[in-house]
Design brief:
heterodimer; A: mainly alpha; ABC transporter involved in vitamin B12 uptake, BtuC; 2 domains; 18 helices; 4 strands; 3% strand; globular; B: mainly alpha; two-stranded antiparallel sheet
């Protein structure tokens, strides 16, 4: 069975610390403090909106990684559980009699329960098999529910979705959640709580069994565990936290539409989780932060950002299956040996050259796209804050030159980097 | 009666089109155990390439060249992409093909833009073949049927009657043994992947003029193709054929006949709640069959998975 993403017990970073049902204190305290003071550093409303979006994506990505990273189950329709949780919360918000007695911060629990309920129904038949079959079923069910959103108008609100007003809830300690910043702290608290719960879940015997079933379901069955039920429990737990993410989305945006359910949304969460790295708990967190930032910045700059994202994603799958987190954790052995510093200069050489090549290639892509698709007579383009004529020769020479020289230099310096890498990962005095 | 005949033909066209995609997909799956998420993207590439070629050389050269180009690209993807990712396991393979599907869609938008391309059937086929009770059947539909049937027969012949087909069938079940007998199994895999994607390319070439050549065309058909091979049973060619035709006819007939849930519920003895717009069941009562035609395949899939997880013709466990 080479079916699954496996943990490698020889790598210290992946060795499990079984039985330690406590949170390692430092990272969590740092995270909590960071969440507390971030709004004082970035005070603009747009920044708070981005941070809210980020926090919701983090919860969703962590929930998704309970399936993909810890359970080895690839779902192509996970947005459905977040979406249904969100829609259910929207209906609760619109139910005045009930909502006026419910403090808003408790609402995500209901979202979680609804997501969990749906996951129990779907999981009852979809978790029988892992791997490809599970992926296909998740896709089919996801499409089915997304398509239902235009038919079952009473629940999904048709094409315009449903909206509500979060401020009608029972005031919580005098806060009515009129302002964005109050919502931020609500989401931040839920982020800490659910991240901690998900971390602790991964340390329970059940969470450990999920890893075992991922790596070798046959052996887990011989040990007396039902692989199917272990998968089912992971799926249900993941549905619960996805529902919480959906509820927070409902609270933050006060509107839910078909877009929250469809396959595109499910694809994005797969992308975020995988780019961040499925092998480590903090991978999806990293992925969500980077992805939200890049999405916000890049989508303002270029309409081709989906194209770049696709390239980055495919390259990641092919060459760095550990994602960002995997790349970072690769450096732990070198750090243990105290030789991380020796990598600095070779990195600077190769990655600097590579970055130049990427910038050149991106400029080329932008220029080709502009020449092909801009309206007739429009020859002006602005790339990297300089405006020039795309029908002149000089920009093309510059862009092609940067691409060729950049990638050429990166290629030329790569052997040096490999040598430095091997050196940094070998203890001094060890036999070569 | 006449309308039934017209719908039978329409459903047959849809079904055979689906079959051309699902045949390649199911072959690739039974061979490598990997589901090619980007399969429908190759179908889209086929349509776009054929459009570009038809501008210069006409429709027929497009029909000839575009699938070849797509097949070569598919083989390249297997050789340089999938084979590399294979070492990480099945789940990363699936993620890889998913990423590829995203990338191809973005690439198509990058090259051809977001608008629909004016790709049309050749003039020689733009006439009415025959009419049934006032419903004209365009010659292009008959052409599509002939092409698909010809491909199916050709595929069946190659797989069951030729030496190459025998080796492929053997490699499906016992790749190690076939390799030990001196055959180049990785090459066979690459070839099958190439042929499978080329089939998708053919489907794209002939479907482009009918269903429209636009960047979303892969997405529209993609998930239905997956549903088809799940219903038919993963890895079964006959299952793919039956499921494709089944889906083709189910969707066509439910679109053509306006069956209303209201009538069904009344027949079953339920009374319509009044006023209907205030009832929580209003959506159930107002459902009509054209409205749910597009989700019927998914419902069928869920039912199949619950009651017969192997699919209609599936023999083995995935």
């Amino acid at each position: 069975m080479t079916d699954q993403l496996t943990t490698d017990p020889t790598k210290p970073a992946q060795r499990m610390r079984a039985g330690s049902m406590v949170l390692p204190l430092t990272p969590w305290v740092i995270a909590a403090i960071a969440l507390l003071i971030l709004p004082f550093i970035f005070t603009a409303n747009s920044a708070i909106t981005i941070m809210n979006q980020m926090a919701i994506t983090i919860i969703f990505a962590l929930a998704y990684n309970m399936l993909l990273g810890q359970g080895g189950m690839l779902s192509f329709g996970h947005a459905v559980y977040a979406g249904v949780g969100g829609f259910a919360c929207m209906h609760i918000i619109n139910n005045d009699a009930f909502f006026s007695n419910l403090p808003l911060p408790l609402l995500p629990i209901f979202g979680g329960l609804f997501g969990m309920g749906l996951a129990m129904i779907v999981g009852s038949f979809s978790t029988r098999k892992a791997g490809t079959v599970f992926a296909m079923i998740s896709l089919g069910v996801g499409e089915l529910i997304a398509a239902c959103s235009v038919i079952i108008v009473a629940f999904f609100g048709g094409e315009e979705g449903i909206s509500g007003d979060r401020t009608y809830g029972l005031p919580f300690l005098g806060v009515e959640f009129l302002q964005q910043i109050e919502v931020y702290y609500l989401i931040a608290v839920w982020l800490m709580v659910s991240a901690a719960l998900m971390y602790l879940y991964s340390r329970t015997p059940l969470g450990r069994m999920a890893n075992a079933v991922r790596d070798n379901p046959e052996r887990a069955e011989f040990l007396g565990y039902s692989a199917r039920w272990v998968r089912f429990y992971s799926f249900v737990a993941s549905g619960f936290f996805a529902g919480i993410a959906g509820a927070l989305f409902a609270i933050n945006y006060e509107i839910l539409t078909e877009e929250n359910l469809n396959t595109t949304q499910s694809g994005i969460i797969l992308l975020v989780t995988f780019l961040g790295g499925v092998g480590f708990f903090f991978g999806p967190i990293l992925g969500a932060i980077v992805f939200t930032l890049v999405q916000t910045v890049l989508s303002l700059q270029t309409e081709l950002w989906g194209f770049y994202l696709g390239i980055v994603f495919v390259v990641t799958v092919m060459f760095f299956p550990g994602g960002l987190a995997g790349l970072i954790m690769m450096h732990v052995p070198a750090k243990r040996l105290g030789k991380l510093g020796r990598l600095g200069l070779p990195y600077l050489k190769t990655l600097g050259a590579g970055a130049l090549g990427c910038l050149g290639a991106a400029a080329l892509i932008e220029m080709v796209f502009h020449v092909r698709h801009a309206s007739v007579g429009d020859h002006e383009i602005t790339v990297y804050w300089t405006t020039f004529d795309t029908h002149g020769v000089l920009p093309w020479v510059l862009a092609i030159g940067a691409t060729v020289i950049g990638f050429g230099l990166a290629r030329a310096t790569a052997p040096g980097l490999v040598a430095a890498w091997n050196d940094a990962n070998t203890p001094d005095g060890a036999a070569r | 009666m006449d309308l039934i005949l017209v719908n039978l033909i329409d459903g047959l066209v849809t079904g055979l089109l689906l079959f051309m995609l699902s045949a390649g997909l199911t072959l690739i799956f039974s061979m490598m155990g990997v589901l090619n998420f980007a399969h429908a993207s190759f179908y889209m590439l086929g349509a776009y390439f054929a459009f570009q070629i038809s501008l210069a050389l006409g429709f027929w050269m497009g029909l000839l060249i575009a699938p070849l180009v797509v097949g070569v690209m598919g083989a390249g993807v297997e050789r340089y992409g999938l084979r590399r990712v294979h070492q990480y396991g099945h789940v990363p393979e699936l993620i890889f093909t998913f990423g590829l599907a995203l990338l191809i869609e973005e690439l198509v938008q990058f090259i051809w833009g977001k608008n629909q391309m004016p790709y049309e059937a050749p003039e020689i086929l733009q006439f009415t073949a025959f009419a049934i009770a006032g419903n004209s059947i365009p010659a292009y539909k008959i052409f599509m049927i002939f092409i698909s049937v010809a491909i199916f027969i050709g595929l069946l012949w190659v797989l069951t009657r030729t030496r190459v087909g025998m080796i492929i069938q053997a490699a499906l079940t016992y790749p190690k043994t076939v390799e030990a007998l001196g055959h180049n199994v990785p090459l066979i895999f690459m070839g099958v992947f190439g042929v499978g994607t080329a089939l998708a390319g053919v489907a794209g070439v002939i479907a482009g003029p009918v269903l429209g050549t636009f960047p979303g065309m892969a997405f529209v058909l993609g998930s239905i193709v997956f549903v088809t091979i799940v219903i038919g049973g993963l890895g079964s060619l006959w299952g793919a054929l039956v499921a494709s035709l089944l889906i083709g006819w189910i969707t066509t007939f439910s679109k053509a006949y306006n069956l209303r849930m209201e009538d069904l519920l009344t027949t079953l003895g339920f009374t319509k709640p009044e006023p209907i717009w205030d009832s929580p069941w209003r959506d159930l009562w107002s459902i009509t069959s054209p409205q749910i035609a597009d989700i019927l395949p998914y419902i069928l899939m869920v039912l199949i998975l619950i009651f017969r997880p192997y699919g209609l013709f599936g023999k083995r466990d995935a």
